[in-house]
Amino acid sequence: MNDLNDNPNGGLGAGPLRVAVLVGSTRDGRFGPVVAEWTAGHIAQREDMEADLVDLVETPVPTVMPAFGQQPSDEDVALLGAVAPRLAAADAFVIVTPEYNHSYPAALKNAIDWHNPQWHAKPVAFVSYGGISGGLRAVEHLRGVLAELHAVTIRNTVSFHNYGDKFDADGKPLDPECDAAAKSLLDQLTWWGLALRDARAARPYTG
Known about the structure:
The protein has helices spanning about 30-45, 75-80, 85-90, 105-115, 135-150, 175-200; strands at about 15-25, 50-55, 90-100, 125-130, 150-160. It is an alpha/beta fold. Strand 3 (about 90-100), helix 4 and strand 4 (about 125-130) form a beta-alpha-beta unit.
């Protein structure tokens, strides 16, 4: 779907990068919001970024797409209206995802598939969590999907292996090196975000 946004080129111009932090899991009892809030907290500490936390539980997208060439129903348009403009306004993304059966959640794939130009020529970083693999197999699947949508994925990741015992009661990682990893990830995202925002301003991306 590609007509549900006001500005697919994102927040063009000066000022902090607008970063949409997308919570990919909608499962009951999910851990995603803990990881997402921690990520958004790191963004809040920076002067070059501002976060918009997009939670697919709070703002669900439709699960049945219209036939090719047909428009979504009014009800579906209303649901998408709570998500699509926020993705369109973003200069960059951080996807927070667990790993389900060696891949990522269906709800996340659905949200990605409902949008197209919102991803174009924008960088995407990943913060994953899971068991032994830390969600990295989900991340590798996402890279191929997002390349098809003309997005640029960041090489570095932050991943939490066996995440259940990696956070304290306040939702903070126990290992201080996690904070250094988050800074490195966001530094890379900033570089790409600024470069691609400037490029889209000089020459709008047409896909």
